[in-house]
Write a structure and sequence with these properties.
alpha+beta, single chain, two-stranded antiparallel sheet, 7-stranded mixed barrel, 4 helices
Length: 178
């Protein structure tokens, strides 16, 4: 597993990722706990997040009425972070629906920023993706601590709501809408 020193040394590389016009390098669906599918295209809707994803049935955050919290419909993981921490490919893929060569810091993507993803539009959430215990188990304590020690850099990526229904594919790029 990667060490904290190696992660800190790689930080300039991570932060040098594109701030917009970011290539999408991977798409992932999580139809159930621990399950992964890797399509070339995914549909996103305001009502369902990503149809077929477990967000509609087993979200980790809910609203007061018990419904899934739309602020966590879609997560975007910077590919440079994923490549650093996911060294043992026998471990499960992190599971983020979008993996892109994208700089996800708060300075680049303040809460409320809109992002064009294919024909869909996403909105950056105020919920911080601080890495869960599964991240720690899979990628190590150093990777977990590194993500959590830099909240404004959002190294674990961003969480978004779907603002406009659409489809995103591997040939698309993420465009920040200013």
């Amino acid at each position: 597993m990667i060490t904290l020193a190696e992660l800190n040394a790689a930080l300039p590389h991570v932060l040098a990722a594109p701030k917009t016009d970011a290539p999408i390098l991977g798409l992932c669906l999580r139809p159930g706990v621990g399950l992964r599918a890797f399509p070339d295209q995914i549909r996103m809707t305001k009502a369902e997040g990503i149809p077929g994803e477990r967000w509609t049935t087993t979200p980790w955050m809910r609203l007061e009425d018990g419904s899934p919290d739309p602020r966590i419909q879609v997560s975007i993981l910077p590919s440079r972070v994923m490549d650093l921490v996911w060294q043992d490919r026998s471990q499960p893929h992190p599971g983020d629906p979008i993996v892109a060569d994208f700089e996800t810091s708060e300075a680049n993507l303040p809460v409320g920023t809109r992002i064009q993803a294919g024909t869909a539009v996403l909105r950056v959430s105020d919920v911080w993706n601080d890495a869960c215990v599964k991240w720690k188990v899979r990628y190590g304590k150093d990777a977990y601590d590194w993500v959590r020690s830099n909240p404004n850099l959002r190294l674990r990526g961003i969480l978004c709501s779907v603002e406009r229904d659409g489809e995103v594919g591997l040939k698309d790029r993420l465009q920040v809408l200013r």
